[in-house]
Write a structure and sequence with these properties.
Chain lengths: 354, 472
């Protein structure tokens, strides 16, 4: 196996190249710029396209162009830039264009700072732009997954003709780990039925999100909704760590889940029955497994780098069966494992209120 | 009855159009779009381009370009047509890509996309229909609305000091070096129309010949938006608008360029090529038998920027990777970076690594005083602290910790450069922890140090650090 020690942000581009992505459009922003740096180096070297666009808005609309040709394409940014891409993502979803967009989330709101946060959960998992649509959202927690889940994102985007998002953070992006470098995919889907490529065989096709007649647009929305229900039924990915006998289930994703692995081990050494449920797809959310665990665990705790966003989905899944607690740090403050252990202990001793 | 003789560049029946009239356009009487559409369709056909044309129509009255043109069609977001067109052309350089835009779209909400596509010299053709009004949204002021012209948002007429002056896009774009061809024409009298037809065809030919960016502005009437009848509209266009928007060629480099001088390169996915390329990214350390790590290392390395702190972490990480272990490296990120200090966290483990952040290291390296003051208390009991005593005066709690003081910077100077102080420290670390054999570290460093002329110095630095600890 070919291995390299690399940054998570670089591993995204390795995964993209292996997935057959041929065009990258981006705009510089910390802490996502390394993704663009890697793309600028590797895409032209392999005969692909790299353009540093004049804006985030332009970059996502370039993605719309290449995606409309049925060719794998991507962009990456960080929170303020991702906000700007929401218009284009809505058009991509409306026109059913497969593409991948990476958000290396930073502290907000507004200009905020460049430190890690997870406060873009709402704008990634709940639609974000205008209209009824969803992004398929994947949350890697290490460099290998930055690569592998980028490949998965391309696969899902193509399978469902929908944009897919990689939601990561500054730590997962900047951290270096050992990555098994993948081989290129063996086949790419044929999109000639709907794509507009500039070749005669697709000259009868139209890439569009405009549907003037209200009944037709309702039908279009219902078709999208049926697709989203199919994704929810088939594409949920999660990881369980020591949940079988856990009294307290901690729900955490991305870099926080890495910290929670350590804290769960520390807690277990102290005899506390704690387990981790880690959503890998944030949308579709692992609702069913949480509902199942709500039948065996006595309490839940959502830990996030936010003031409480994913916790709402945990509450919906638990549906009032057992208490759901929340612990969040934000602004770029990342809790240490001892800090979390204190929180686990308090909850299990019944000290904090839900 | 057909409304006009259709070119084969058009669909013969407009099936995508809503309503019963499937052979007429949706445009108002006297609107210039119909004329411009016809000229484009005819030019596409005459040049034999129709079937490989991609027509991008953004928001505005021309959003329905796909009703009419018998080619590949994209509908784009307001103002974004030039970005979409750029991507289409770059991803298939053999496509003929037309961006058809109105004044609000091209010169207001899409100004940035317009200018930058032109500035990159994208080999696309932009047809800019300037009718000095927002038509589809109901007659609001456009960036090209004339001074004094009334609109829904300038009910008393456009005033320069309040609303700004009409923008002249041809003149503006002609200041850029990249565009090949820029001309302004009009749908006014028949001689204007003859010139417009020529310009439209020429612009498409320039693209087909691979000669770069072509831009044709077509001054055109909007009787509905202007609240005039078609004849009065034409007269106002000719007598008033053309004074502000003079017709003419603003740039024409077509004859000075070779064919395909703006040809872009694109290759589709080739698995074999990608596999070869990705394989070249693999680490130079190669594959060896896994080593035995006596215990997990949770390291924090701290010092001033420029001392090679981050590189020290990278060297140890790659030794760990070669040994077959789980490894993470994370640079200080955020407030800790202030004050010119640098630090990084490195974990080496036989098991999966949880948090990559090392709050409580079992190995701490300090190469400046503030780092000692800041991090000593965090080291776990029985942990190792390595102090560069050339730089740091103090020492650490020898009862609680295994303290190694080594004049690493002095040793590095003796070796030949202060830059290898970090490698002296690495040698000391390996000796103090017995995490690896020195030979294993040295062969790894030989593989990963890119500048071969520096290898000998690094070998000596490592060995000096290693021996210093082992012999003390």
């Amino acid at each position: 196996m070919a291995k390299q020690f690399m940054k998570g942000n670089d591993a995204i581009i390795v995964g993209a190249l292996a997935a057959g992505c041929r065009a990258y459009y981006g705009y510089p922003i910390t802490p996502a710029s390394e993704v663009a740096h890697a793309a600028a180096l590797h895409f032209p070297a392999l005969g692909g396209v790299f353009i540093q666009a004049e804006s985030e808005v332009s970059a996502i609309n370039m993605v719309y162009g290449t995606a409309g040709m049925g060719i794998r394409t991507m962009t990456a940014s960080s929170s303020p830039g991702f906000s700007l891409k929401q218009e284009g993502l809505s058009y991509c979803a409306g026109a059913e264009l497969p593409c991948v967009v990476v958000n290396i989330v930073r502290g907000g709101p507004g200009l905020g700072n460049i430190a890690p946060e997870q406060a873009d959960y709402f704008q990634i998992t709940k639609g974000g732009g205008h209209g009824n649509y969803r992004l398929i959202a994947l949350a890697p927690n290490g460099a290998q997954e930055m690569c592998d889940l980028t490949m998965k994102a391309f696969e899902l985007a193509d399978k469902y003709r929908n944009p897919a998002c990689i939601m990561a953070d500054g730590i997962t992006g900047q951290m270096m780990e050992v990555v098994d470098i993948p081989k290129g995919v063996t086949d790419l889907p044929d999109h000639s039925e709907w794509s507009v490529t500039g070749e005669p065989e697709t000259s009868g096709n139209l890439v569009s999100s405009i549907v003037l007649d209200p009944h037709d647009l309702e039908d279009h929305n219902l078709k999208l909704d049926a697709k989203y229900k199919e994704i929810m039924a088939n594409e949920v990915i999660f990881e369980e760590y020591k949940t079988e006998d856990a009294d307290l289930i901690v729900v955490a994703y991305g870099v926080v889940s890495r910290i929670v692995y350590s804290t769960v081990d520390m807690a277990r050494k102290q005899g506390l029955k704690v387990g981790l449920l880690r959503p890998i797809t944030l949308w579709p959310f692992p609702t069913e497994v949480i509902a199942r665990l709500a039948g065996t665990a006595s309490q839940f705790l959502a830990v996030e780098l936010s003031t409480g966003q994913m916790v709402e989905d945990v509450q919906l899944a638990v549906n009032g069966k057992v208490p759901v607690h929340f612990y969040g740090r934000c602004g770029g403050v990342v809790p240490g494992s001892k800090e979390l252990l204190d929180e686990f202990t308090k909850i299990m001793e019944g000290v904090t209120q839900s | 009855m057909k409304t006009f003789e259709k070119s084969n560049g058009f669909y013969q029946v407009f099936e995508r159009k809503s309503g019963p009239a499937k052979e007429a356009t949706h445009y108002c009487p006297g609107c210039g779009h119909g004329n411009v559409h016809k000229m484009i369709a005819e030019s596409m056909e005459e040049l034999g381009l129709t079937k490989r044309t991609v027509f991008v129509s953004p928001v505005g009255c021309s959003v329905f370009g796909y009703y009419y043109f018998d080619c590949g069609n994209f509908q784009a977001a307001h103002g974004r047509a030039a970005a979409v067109a750029t991507a289409v052309k770059r991803t298939n350089p053999d496509a003929i890509v037309i961006s058809y835009q109105g004044d609000g779209d091209l010169a207001a909400i899409g100004t940035a996309e317009t200018i930058h596509a032109a500035n990159r010299g994208e080999n696309i053709t932009v047809f800019f229909v300037n009718n000095a009004i927002y038509g589809m949204t109901g007659g609001q002021m456009a960036p090209t609305t004339m001074i004094g012209q009334r609109s829904a948002t300038t009910p008393l007429g456009r005033k320069a000091d309040i609303h700004g002056n009409p923008i002249r896009m041809c003149e503006m774009l002609a200041t850029l070096p990249a565009p090949t061809y820029i001309e302004r024409v009009a749908i006014g009298h028949s001689k204007h129309i003859m010139k417009a037809r020529k310009a439209i065809k020429k612009a498409l030919r320039i693209q087909a010949e691979g000669k770069g960016y072509s831009f044709v502005e077509i001054v055109s009437a909007c009787p509905t938006g202007w609240k005039m009848d078609p004849v009065a509209s034409r007269d106002w266009l000719v007598n008033d608008m053309l004074k502000v928007f003079p017709l003419g060629v603003f740039k024409d480099e077509g004859d000075n360029l070779d064919d395909d001088s703006w040809k872009r390169h694109f290759e589709p996915f080739d698995k074999d090529k990608v596999d070869v390329y990705l394989d070249r990214m693999k680490s130079a350390v190669g594959e060896v038998e896994p080593t035995v790590l006596p215990k997990d290392l949770n390291c924090k390395f701290a010092g001033f920027g420029g001392q090679g702190i981050l590189t020290l972490g990278l060297f140890l990480s790659q030794i760990g990777m070669r040994g077959g272990h789980h490894v993470s490296w994370f640079p200080a990120y955020g407030p800790e970076m202030r004050g010119g200090t640098a630090n990084c966290s490195v974990n080496l483990s036989t098991n999966r690594i949880g948090t990559p952040l090392v709050d409580h290291p079992n190995v701490l390296v300090v190469m400046n005083q503030p780092s000692l003051d800041l991090f000593e208390k965090d080291v776990v009991d029985g942990g190792t602290i390595i102090i560069d005593s050339t730089v740091v005066e103090g020492t650490a709690d020898t009862k609680r910790l295994n303290v190694v003081t080594i004049p690493a910077s002095d040793i590095a100077d003796e070796v030949g450069t202060p830059k290898v102080a970090n490698v002296v420290i690495l040698g000391a670390l390996v000796a103090a922890t017995d995490a690896f054999t020195p030979e294993f570290c040295e062969s790894t460093l030989r593989a990963i140090i890119k500048k071969k002329s520096l290898i000998d110095m690094n070998m000596e630095a490592f060995r000096r650090g290693y021996d210093f600890v082992k012999n003390s």
